[in-house]
Amino acid sequence: MSQPANAHDLPAVFLLFQIQGDFLSGAPYGSGHINDTYAVVASQAGTPVRYILQRVNHDIFKNPAALMENIARVTAHSQSVLADRNDPDASRKALTTVPARDGKPYAFDADGNLWRVYLFIERATGYDIIENTGQAVQAARAFGSFQALVADLPGERLHETIPDFHHTPKRFQALQAAIEADFHNRAAAAAAEIAFACEREGDTGIITGLMEKGEIPERVTHNDTKLNNVLIDDATGEGVCVIDLDTTMPGCALYDFGDMVRTATNSAAEDETDLSRVESRMEMFEALATGYLETASAFLTAAEKRHLAFSGKLLTLECGMRFLTDYLSGDTYFKTKHPEHNIERCRNQFALVRSIESRLEEMQAFVDSL
Ligand code: ADP
Ligand code: GN1
Ligand code: MG
After folding, report:
1. Residue 9 CB: number of other CB atoms within 10 A?
2. pTM for this one?
């Protein structure tokens, strides 16, 4: 379940970092499901300045120092590209970590938690539900540009911060193990959802199978392209910054496009329980495909393009299976607000899968027409 707001000693954590000025206040921020995120305010000679202070969830990210090595490399690369362009807004267009007292981009507290601080990107918003097709175009452009940017990342292969993160067949196996164990006696209540996932087992291995055969390439990808992981500029409406880089690692371009479809085409919130409101909107899909291909068509292969619509179905199915697995396992992974939260999210995602299935051909025909 979610952390209580007063779970951490924010003034003490603040002092671990080279933040100028005095600690004024701190409060939980955002709607991420994984890390503990706070907006903290420092008084800099009387002017309040916000920062993002985050505890990285080390139950999920088993090697948070390696994760921070990835982030340091990706953010340094983004900033050097922006500097080469003399971009006057560079510090809003890429995440910037604030160093700890020892110069590292993170610090450990007395309980062994890893913390990091980012400059707060002001005058921009991460949306849980999309408001218009313009935002879909912008979000897709931002994630497509991000993929193009990290394609040139110098150095070794990035660390896999969560192994097999989007290996859907392994996610399916994990679901089967949770059903068999049924430690919390919840499988009976989830019988319909379990059946839904089992009927679609054949879909789970399609993308991993093409990757194993070398027909779809491994690329550095973001892997968590949920709509609220791109900040949209409040004034211009442009996608200003891609955030939440914890899962930026070797992956597949389709994982990123698929998760955009999952989050940006849904006409309702991810945990909406009135399933009649859950629909994958064609106009949002078209906007996503348009924005994404503007920035990514130069590097995408024909096999990747052929699976863009399917990736939306697959990533939605995978996410629904992950919520279901977590429900059966006693809600240990995703932050939840009440005991039914994960199964409600699962039902919502599976309703969205059905909706995508009903227009899959139309979606792919649109991609092919571009
Ligand atoms: P999680 O992995 O838990 O989703 P995120 O890194 O996405 O954590 O952060 C949670 C939320 O905090 C984001 O959805 C966004 O609203 C906000 N956020 C994160 N980083 C920044 C930043 N540098 N500037 C402004 N807001 C941010
Ligand atoms: C988590 O961290 P956040 O809230 O952006 C999850 C994603 C899921 C998403 C479902 C590291 O994303 O994989 O798709 O919840 N992140 C991790 O909303 O597991
Ligand atoms: Mg996030």
Report:
1. 13
2. 0.96
